[in-house]
Design brief:
This protein is of the alpha+beta class. The protein has 2 domains: 53 residues; 97 residues, Immunoglobulins (Immunoglobulin-like). The chain is built from 1 helix and 7 strands, in the order αβββββββ. The strands form 2 sheets. Strands 4-3-6-7 form a 4-stranded antiparallel sheet, with no helix packed on it. A 3-stranded antiparallel sheet has the order 1-2-5, with no helix packed on it. The radius of gyration is 31 Å and the shape is rod-shaped. The relative contact order is 0.17.
Length: 152
C-alpha cells in the first residue's frame, strides 16, 4: 500500500522536469532567433545609412554628337564625402541597351554640396545626333546618378 502513494509524487516530479526542459528549449530557440533577426536588422540599418549619406544629383548633362563628348555637372547631395577613385559612365540607348561604358577618375574627394564637372569622350559613332541616351555615372563607393540627354 505504501508504494501507491509514491507514484503520484513521481508523476508530478516528471511533469515538472518536462515543463522545465520545455521552457529551457523554448528560451534557447527564442534567443537564437532573436540574435539572428537582430544581426539582419543591423546589416539593413548599416546599408540604409550608407545609401542615405551618399547621394548624387546630375545638375546638367550635355551630349555632343559631333565631338562624341559628354559633359556633366554633378552635385554631392549626400551628407558624406565621396572618396576619389575610379568612376564609370555608362551610356544606354532609348531601349536600355548599353552602348558604351567609359572609365574615368575622380581625382580628388568630392565633399558634401560641392559641384564638379566631368567630361568624357565616347567612342566614334556612339552618339548619333537627335537620339536620346541614358547616362549613368557611378562614383567610388557605388554612388550613382542617372539622367537622359538628346545628342546635339
Amino acid at each position: 500500500m505504501n508504494r501507491k502513494g509514491i507514484t503520484p509524487v513521481i508523476a508530478v516530479v516528471l511533469l515538472l522536469m518536462m515543463t522545465v526542459a520545455a521552457a529551457g528549449a523554448a528560451f534557447f530557440w527564442m534567443t537564437t532567433i532573436q540574435s539572428r533577426i537582430q544581426g539582419q536588422i543591423g546589416t539593413q540599418v548599416s546599408t540604409t545609412t550608407t545609401q542615405t549619406t551618399t547621394s548624387l544629383n546630375i545638375v546638367s548633362l550635355i551630349c555632343n554628337a559631333s565631338t562624341q563628348a559628354i559633359n556633366m555637372t554633378i552635385q554631392n547631395t549626400g551628407s558624406s564625402t565621396i572618396e576619389s577613385g575610379v568612376s564609370a559612365v555608362t551610356i544606354t540607348d532609348d531601349k536600355g541597351n548599353v552602348k558604351e561604358t567609359i572609365q574615368t577618375t575622380l581625382s580628388s574627394n568630392f565633399d558634401q554640396n560641392n559641384i564638379i564637372t566631368i567630361s568624357v569622350a565616347a567612342s566614334s559613332g556612339t552618339l548619333v545626333q537627335n537620339e536620346t541616351y541614358g547616362v549613368k555615372i557611378t562614383l567610388p563607393g557605388g554612388v550613382e546618378g542617372t539622367s537622359d540627354c538628346v545628342a546635339q
